Amino acid sequence: MGRDWFVLGMVLIFSISSPGCFSESEEYYYSVSDPQDGSNSDGTSDALFTITLDDQGGIDMDFSDLVVIIERDSGSHKCATTGTTGNCTVVQASGSDDSLWEIGEILVIYENGVGICSQHCILAFSVSGPEDAKIVGPTILNTT
Predict the structure, then answer these.
(1) 92 with 66: CB under 8 angstroms?
(2) Which residues of 103-116 are buried (b: 16+ CB within 10 A; e: fewer)?
């Protein structure tokens, strides 16, 4: 009987000391839209699209974990979430905490000195977040 209690005690101690080991991965859901009709021009600072963190996942994402990559014929463009480097930038248009992409918060993806989309185009892009997180949303946008 003493051995059974010892094993049960070890299992309890292990499960209490490692709460994150048995949890499911985080899930994030987003939606995408064109910011406004005719927003894409021959310029190099256009708003390409907006992206909103939907409530289905139920948690905010650290803004520093967010990665947006746009694929076009001209190549791949990783959008900067801090500073002004990169061919495109991710700008927080709403929200109360600059360190988080909050539920319902709208982000705007802008060109940054490079004509990624002029007039009408189809953008393929990927959105990723924290390691092992599931990110769910569209991957193609037909901008007008």
Answers:
(1) no
(2) bebbbbbbbbeebb
Q: Residue 96 in contact with residue 104, Cβ under 8 Å?
A: no
- Distance, CA of 39 to CA of 128 (rounded, Å): 25
The number of residues in the chain equals: 144
Give the dihedral of Cα atoms 105, 129, 137, 22; nearest 10 deg: -110
| pTM of this prediction exceeds 0.85 | no
Instruction: Report how many domains make up the chain.
Output: 1
Does the residue 8 lie in any domain? no
Give the long-range contacts of residues 2-9, CB within 8 A, separation 24 or more: none
Span 46-89, pLDDT tens digits: 889 999 999 987 899 999 999 999 998 768 999 999 877 889 99
Question: Which residues have a Cβ under 8 Å from the Cβ of 116 and sit 6 or more positions away?
Answer: 46, 48, 70, 72, 74, 77, 87, 88, 123
Residue 16 inside a domain? The answer is: no
Q: What angle do CA 89, 35, 106 make, to 5 degrees?
A: 65
